[in-house]
């Protein structure tokens, strides 16, 4: 929606001051989700699965998906403490059998978890992960036997930050709160948010959209990356289209799947901060909120070799204190102009209509890397951007 700047004090301030945060919902283990299912969200249709014959008791699930060009599978494996020493050889056998069971697969990604603590994708991290394109199967098998280095594998070192459950929250209308503060403080913070939203460009550490100008450029962004099933499919689509994007990654996911972060950088994409555990910041004590940003920054810098410039708070929720903390870490807090709600699974027709009518120069499009409907709607959206002569790029590529 476009607003005239003169309406800012009277209309928008009151609207944002009255925003309410949805109540928390008890967490549920949902394998295959990067974060637990958010309130008000419909479950996505079940993904197709493979059944291995004869069965392997350690294989909990094998899902597969196509983006129209390539097909990828993700195998979830759980092991007992007694089975851990043979986990590499087990991974190699799982990958070999999955590829044999479905000849159309181009890649198999595998995550090995401790059976006793496994709680889905948002639970404790895997013990081992690997990404195995079919053409790299022999390289991976040699690594599994201890014969060489395989750069698309990760082993949990066991000294990672203490586990904190992800919040069941999805990005809604960005909102600011001032816990324990006065109404005057809330009004000032809300006015700053509204100014940044309406004026465009960078204001007070906030960025909602690019500065108005002649360039027909919009930013394409994805939250919650990386996911071992969806990431190779998404990166493949972007590579084929030539579009660039900013991935706001969850630090713990980046740690467990570092090869996908390196793929993003190699393809010219930008990697941003989405906290380490995907947690809402306003309820946290400021040192804890700052630590969430610091931990994610450290992982991203280690994997990319570059400083982190952009941050998106989970749920779009922040406080003046967390905004200042982000700035102190060199981060600009980034929101969006276009959230079609892909994580709600509203249906292809609805998603495509929302994306099409909101595409505009200077805009920031918000999608989620682990929403299956996103993959389906992204291809026509990329075509539309070309037809409208709008270049899709990173947040860093927007005029500010």
SSE topology:
Elements (H helix, E strand, L loop, with lengths): L7 H10 L41 E8 L4 E9 L7 H15 L5 E8 L13 E6 L3 H8 L8 E3 L19 E2 L6 H17 L2 E2 L2 E2 L9 E9 L4 H12 L4 E4 L1 H6 L1 H9 L3 E4 L12 H19 L5 E2 L5 E2 L1 H9 L3 E3 L13 H11 L5 E5 L3 H16 L3 E3 L7
Helix pairs in contact: 1-4, 2-3, 5-11, 8-9, 10-11
Rg, nearest Å: 21 Å
Mean pLDDT: 85
Q: What's the multimeric state? A: single chain
Whole-number tally of structural domains = 2
Query: In CATH terms, what is the fold-level topology of the largest domain?
Result: TIM Barrel
Q: How many β-strand runs?
A: 16
Please report the number of helical segments. 11
| Secondary-structure content class | alpha/beta
CATH architecture of the largest domain: Alpha-Beta Barrel
Distance between the termini: 20 Å
Poorly predicted runs are: 1-40
Strand numbers in spatial order across the main sheet: 1-2-3-4-5
What is the CATH top level name of the largest domain?
Alpha Beta
> Which series of helices and strands comes N to C?
HEEHEEHEEHEEEHEHHEHEEHEHEHE
Q: How much of the polypeptide forms β-strand, as a percent range?
A: 15-25%
Taken from the alpha-carbon principal axes, the silhouette is: globular
The main β sheet shows up as: 5 strands, mixed
What is the helix fraction of residues, given as a range? 25-40%
CATH superfamily of the largest domain: Glycoside hydrolase/deacetylase
Organism: Deinococcus aluminii
Signal peptide: 1-19
Keywords: Hydrolase, Metal-binding, Signal
Domain NodB homology: 216-393
């Amino acid at each position: 929606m476009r607003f005239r700047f003169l309406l800012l004090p009277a209309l928008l301030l009151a609207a944002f001051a009255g925003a309410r945060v949805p109540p928390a919902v008890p967490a549920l283990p949902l394998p295959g989700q990067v974060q637990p299912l958010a309130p008000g969200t419909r479950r996505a249709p079940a993904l197709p699965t493979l059944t291995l014959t004869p069965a392997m008791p350690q294989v909990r699930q094998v899902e597969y998906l196509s983006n129209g060009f390539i097909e990828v599978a993700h195998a979830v494996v759980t092991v007992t403490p007694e089975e851990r020493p043979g986990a590499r050889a087990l991974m190699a056998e799982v990958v070999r059998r999955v590829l044999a069971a479905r000849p159309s697969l181009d890649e198999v990604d595998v995550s090995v978890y401790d059976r006793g603590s496994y709680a889905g994708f948002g639970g404790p991290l895997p013990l081992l992960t690997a990404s195995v394109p079919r053409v790299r199967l022999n390289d991976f098998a040699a690594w599994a036997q201890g014969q060489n280095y395989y750069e698309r594998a990760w082993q949990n070192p066991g000294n990672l930050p203490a586990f904190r459950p992800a919040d069941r929250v999805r990005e809604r209308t960005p909102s600011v709160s001032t816990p324990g503060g006065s109404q005057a403080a809330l009004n000032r913070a809300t006015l700053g948010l509204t100014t940044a939203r309406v004026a465009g460009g960078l204001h007070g550490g906030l960025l909602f959209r690019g500065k108005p100008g002649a360039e027909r450029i919009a930013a394409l962004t994805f939250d919650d990356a990386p996911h071992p099933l969806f990431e190779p499919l998404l990166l493949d689509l972007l590579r084929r289209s030539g579009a660039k994007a900013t991935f706001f990654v969850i630090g713990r996911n980046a740690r467990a799947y570092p090869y996908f972060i390196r793929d993003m950088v190699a393809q010219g994409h930008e990697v941003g901060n989405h906290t380490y555990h995907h947690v809402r910041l306003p309820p946290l004590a400021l040192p804890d909120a700052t630590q969430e940003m610091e931990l994610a920054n450290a992982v991203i810098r280690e994997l990319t070799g570059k400083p982190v410039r952009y941050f998106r708070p989970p749920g779009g929720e922040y406080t003046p204190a967390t905004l200042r903390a982000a700035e102190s870490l060199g981060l600009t807090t980034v929101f969006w102009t276009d959230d079609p709600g892909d994580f709600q699974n509203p249906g292809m027709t609805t998603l495509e209509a929302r994306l099409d009518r909101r595409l505009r120069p200077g805009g920031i499009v918000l999608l989620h890397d682990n929403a299956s409907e996103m993959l389906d709607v992204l291809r026509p959206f990329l075509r539309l951007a070309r037809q409208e002569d709008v270049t899709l790029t990173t947040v860093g590529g927007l005029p500010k």
